Amino acid sequence: MAIITYLKSSGYLIAEKILRIILGFFVGIKIAQMLGPHDYGRYSYILAWVSILSVISKLGLDNVILKIISTDSKVDDSMGTAILLRIFTSFIIIFSTSWLAYSFINDTELFKLIIILSTSLIPESLTIFLQYLYYEAKGKVISMIYIFQFIISIIVKVYLIIIGAEIDAFIYALLFDSVVLGGCLIFVFGGRSRVSLKNYQKSISLDLLSKGLPLMLSALAVVLYMKLDQFMINYFMGENALGVYSVSVKISESINFIPVIVTASVFPVLLNSRSESELKISSIRLHSMMFYLSLVLVGLLLTTSNFVIKYLGKDFSEAYDVLLLHCWSGIFVFWGLASTKWLVKKGLERFQLYRTASGLFVNLVLNIYLIPLFGLKGAALATIVSYSIAGLFFDIFFKQTRELFYIKINSINYKYLFSDDKPVS
Q: Which of 48, 386, 53, 54 is nearest to 233 (CA)?
């Protein structure tokens, strides 16, 4: 089956990510232990801000470009235009963030670090080249790029841990990670690709922006309600509580890279589906894979994470209770990432925005109510409820997406992992 070919490609990426997660996880935990709850809370706050800025700078163009690669002959013009749009957007974000920080923020040291890390958006603009490799199922090449970058990153961070560096040194290390990745992409594609900034075309840029904007807004809604709890914990409970909560979230979300890789690698199968029946079968198999994979990984988290939190010390002990709740949101994250590909294939990108916006709204309301009542556990509970709405229940309310709801329900039946039987609708 075609899906198996792309899954083999994703296997290289998953292997690379497992290496990254295992080594990076222990380094990250050591950073948390060294910085302590307060400084680790500040560190997490900076990362939350820049993750939002990163989504804006990407303009929702990854899936759009991947679709163009599979159907359009003017790939070089589209790629060149997309890269220039991203670079230009990154500069706008950096200058806007600098102006806001200078004009309205009292904690100048904190926002100086946010501005420094936001410059990483410029080299990250080049990651759109990876869509070529995803389409050609060259996961091995992608994994080699990331492994090289990761080795450099680990060496730098281990050195900083050994010398007992301050928080600002680790922010500069994250910026250096992005520079290394950008350099690797230039090295790999510089001599092979005909893509150039001279390929920019205004008509293509308008088309890319019109197609990418709904995806960017929906991705922004996703990252906002994934990070909203951290902003609100910082507001209601302070940086110490945020540091504790961030550890539990780091552990819980450590598995989220897997659906990102698998769905990106399998997306060409959905794009090349020749009939509605074939699309439905491929989609339900993908969602079933995501469901059972998430259950296995959540179980693994629950059985192993307590040892990690004990290692961090008593200052982080509350993180385990938070994790017991938060990790179950992973099921809906896995489903949500898989269903995004279905929406793109069907030309229903706007519904991704609608459903994630609904999840964001619910998360906001529940956090306002639950954090003052239940503290960190309230934030975790709000996350589960809002993720379930965006990742499952929203789809049933609209005719265009109701089929997707039934795809997810059918995917709970394990037989669709291995069978081509027509699903119930």
A: 48
